[in-house]
Structures are given as structure tokens and as C-alpha cells.
């Protein structure tokens, strides 16, 4: 990959990797650190990476950086929460985005990862398998179980509202 292609990759994929990291970490600064670490690692190996495979390589690198961050910080899936600024406007008591985020936080890490890659980032099963070092069957099972858990959580929430 040339430096021009690397810069194109930064422009094209940095926001996606940031969203991916933020969904996991719930901390803006840590998510930015993951993005920076990911692109640093890719730059170090830019001559070995084909531009056609850069998206998969970036997300694989980001995924491994997230795993390392969790291990290093000793959080074991108990991530810091993003500080939300209070809105002065009238807010609705039932916020679907908040419910979905809460539901995602209840999932085991591997299920959360595969759902985010599939439903938020649009990867196919083969790409997710490559990124997470799982086989396609495992990816499909994790996605099914995660969606089932999300569905059950949302149904339970609807009863309260």
C-alpha cells in the first residue's frame, strides 16, 4: 500500500473504526486512542498490506487493540461510560437509541463485536470470521444468539414503558 492509499484509508475508515471502538469502550478518549493505535500499526506494515484488503485489516487490528485494551485495563468487559451532556430540551422518557445501547452492553463481548460488525458496519460473515478469528458457523451462531438476546431485552423494556 502506498502512502497515498494509506491516506485514503484514513479518510475512508477512521470514522467507522472510531464508532466501532466507541460502541465497545463507551469512552471517547479511549476510542480515539484505539483509532490512532490501529492506524499506527497499519502504517508500520503498510508495505505488506494490499489496499484492497485494508478495510478488513484495519478492523482486525482495531478488534485486537480493543481486546488488548480490555486486558491491559483489567476491565473484563466492564467498560467506562461515556459522559453524556444534559440536554436542556424536553426529552422523551423512552429513547430507542439508549435502549439499544443498554441492550448491546448486556451482550458478551464476542456477541457484541459480531453484531456491531454485521449490523453497524455491514461486514459479511466471511469478513467477520476473518476479523475475529472465528469460523463462519460460529459467527452466524453468535449473531443469532445476540439478536435473540437483543429482541428479548427490547420486548422486556416495552412492557415497562
Protein topology:
Elements: H1 3-25, H2 28-44, H3 54-73, H4 96-106, H5 109-120, H6 125-132, H7 136-160
Task: Please summarize what this structure is.
The chain has 161 residues and is mainly α.
In percent terms, what proportion of residues is strand?
Answer: under 5%
Biggest beta sheet attributes:
none
- CATH class category of the largest domain: Mainly Alpha
Low-confidence stretches: 75-93
Percent in helix: over 70%
Mean pLDDT: 80
Structure description:
The structure is a single chain. The chain is built from seven helices and no strands. Helix 6 (125-132) crosses helix 7. It has helices at 3-25, 28-44, 54-73, 96-106, 109-120, 125-132, 136-160.
Write out key terms for the chains shown:
mainly alpha, Arc Repressor Mutant, subunit A, 2 domains, 161 residues, Rna Polymerase Sigma Factor, Chain: A, 72% helix
Amino acid at each position: 500500500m502506498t502512502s497515498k492509499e494509506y491516506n485514503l484509508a484514513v479518510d475512508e475508515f477512521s470514522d467507522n473504526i472510531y464508532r466501532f471502538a466507541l460502541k465497545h469502550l463507551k469512552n471517547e478518549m479511549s476510542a480515539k486512542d484505539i483509532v490512532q493505535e490501529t492506524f499506527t500499526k497499519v502504517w508500520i506494515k503498510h508495505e505488506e498490506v494490499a489496499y484492497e484488503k485494508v478495510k478488513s485489516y484495519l478492523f482486525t487490528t482495531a478488534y485486537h487493540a480493543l481486546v488488548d485494551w480490555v486486558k491491559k485495563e483489567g476491565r473484563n468487559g466492564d467498560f467506562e461510560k461515556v459522559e453524556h451532556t444534559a440536554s436542556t430540551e424536553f426529552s422523551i422518557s423512552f429513547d430507542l437509541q439508549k435502549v439499544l445501547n443498554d441492550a448491546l452492553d448486556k451482550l458478551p463481548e464476542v456477541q457484541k463485536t459480531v453484531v456491531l460488525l454485521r449490523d453497524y458496519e455491514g461486514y459479511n460473515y466471511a469478513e467477520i470470521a476473518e476479523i475475529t478469528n472465528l469460523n463462519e458457523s460460529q459467527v452466524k451462531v453468535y449473531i443469532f444468539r445476540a439478536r435473540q438476546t437483543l429482541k428479548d431485552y427490547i420486548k422486556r423494556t416495552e412492557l415497562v414503558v
